[in-house]
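Continuing the series of single-chain predictions for the mutant panel. This is the parent chain; the variants come on the following pages.
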Amino acid sequence: MGDVFSADVSKVKRFADLIHEIEAITGDAVGRFEDGARTCLDWVGRDDEMSEQLRPRDRKEREDTTKTGTSLMGAIAGISRALKVNGNIIQGAQNDVHEAINDASRQSGRH
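Parent structure:
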């Protein structure tokens, strides 16, 4: 007998919903970070030697954090979309199999 594939579509859909909720909750996290970071731009100072040394590093850390956050949000959104598509494909395959079984049962008179 061949391998058996089994999937619980309701669990896939529940997980997709959970990931979608995470996406909704965290979706504007990068924007909130950028807004908050703008309020701290002068923490390194303004016109002294220390600020000249720290400002480029501070700018790079903010940019890197924004890029990382944006990538992470994109990954979460991608996972959410993939789970929805996967759930729909599995559900469609299960529906097709149930329909084929019902058709075969009707044709054989065992329905």
